[in-house]
Predict the structure of F420-dependent oxidoreductase.
Amino acid sequence: MGSSFQVFGIKTKILIPGDDMAEIIIDESSQAGGILDGDIIAIAESGLATTEDAIVRLSDVTPSEKAYEYERMYKIDARLAEIVISESDSIAGGIPGFLLSLKSGTLLPNAGVDGSNAPPGCVVTLPKDPDESAKRIHDKILEKTGKETGVLVIDSRTHAMRLGCSGVAIGCYGVSAITDERGKKDLFGHELEVTRLAVGDNLASAAELVMGESDECTPVAIIRGLSKYISKGSSGVGSIEPSECLFMGVAMNSNPALIDRDRKTE
Amino acid sequence: MGSSFQVFGIKTKILIPGDDMAEIIIDESSQAGGILDGDIIAIAESGLATTEDAIVRLSDVTPSEKAYEYERMYKIDARLAEIVISESDSIAGGIPGFLLSLKSGTLLPNAGVDGSNAPPGCVVTLPKDPDESAKRIHDKILEKTGKETGVLVIDSRTHAMRLGCSGVAIGCYGVSAITDERGKKDLFGHELEVTRLAVGDNLASAAELVMGESDECTPVAIIRGLSKYISKGSSGVGSIEPSECLFMGVAMNSNPALIDRDRKTE
């Protein structure tokens, strides 16, 4: 008999700055029959960022020369480009409408800065420290309910040469985001070639199936039955060096300057 | 109240060439209480490829000059390199141990050719036509059980600058792999920026959470409660043009020859 698990979408009111995400999750968890030990709670970064007031009004931004250059090159609003620059560790390039950012060891469009579900004239940035947010929410849920959970902050992203967005984990606490299968044997007894599983991204993708991107107001999912991935006290999603990454490795062989371009430390 | 769904891992015997995947799924679906209308059935490509005898014995392969060149450049067995070349539309480059293939509009390491869970001295290639396999299995399940399902063929892959493998759909029948949210409004009534959701990849990732990569013999998952993604008669995952892809767009701006290198039509 194989294992099984269940995913519940948790609807909330429209979130606003100052809302207490942990309290909202506890209150609304009745939609999943309450919070149980071993539940994994996935929270959409956009909803979390809103409660944390990570909102920037475009009219408050004064673009730099660089931002105007990106506006000319990539047809992106210079004020948005300025916010993306300030949110990124470096900018690797762009295509019309988007800059490709390197941030916290991950490549992502526009540094995760998004106008969807933001108040008019505003954009929402990523939460400042998603691991810290996950820990804060985990700790409050433990304190208020006595339940040991894992908490993930998730985003919806495109991948190289894949059509459409899928879920990725950008922060976590109390859950193994990466499991290491190195040394394990396959069906024929030889060592596995695929050695690390992005459990955090898989959990994020499962959660996204009940969340949606539009006006569905389901910023939270509760995943039940996968307590094998609970890892008390563990924090962070883990990242990869560009040289270890097949895609970046190939791109860098073609043009070693690619990901160092426009680094802030210049 | 939000929506919810459930994922069941389906254990099987060790699969061998000639096994009938549809029959095995029907027999073993008792682990999920049988097959229901609206179930989405995810099948690991490696198990499917084995039943379809997509197995190549390394000692049967005579490497070309190009394969020996890749062996020198990327420390990959020339016989494996030869198989990867023959399975790829083009080779974009490599890093030690891996070639980066472009195949059916997707970038992937070693064209999906894998030694894990293959008999000794052999590798398993991807199923020849995953959409066709999905349709065949769908049709047989419909014929034998009268249930309308969606069928996905899934793989475990790394993405650019992400640590670890997550699930992707490489073939499907009867399920919407991509949903188009264009024209939909967000919470504040403006049009969404994120417009296409890779539902197939999200479903694949959810399935992977009960499958594992090692000796777990769980090549199938049944996903129940997401019949909203069932789409009678629809086939194929959809792909993206390199120029529309942010990652490839940036890489190609740096080096336009990147993905045309080593195209077979040369």
User: Anything to note?
Assistant: Chain A has seven helices and 13 strands. Helices of chain A lie at 21-28, 45-51, 65-74, 78-87, 130-145, 199-211, 246-254. Chain A touches chain B through 96 residues (CB under 8 Å).
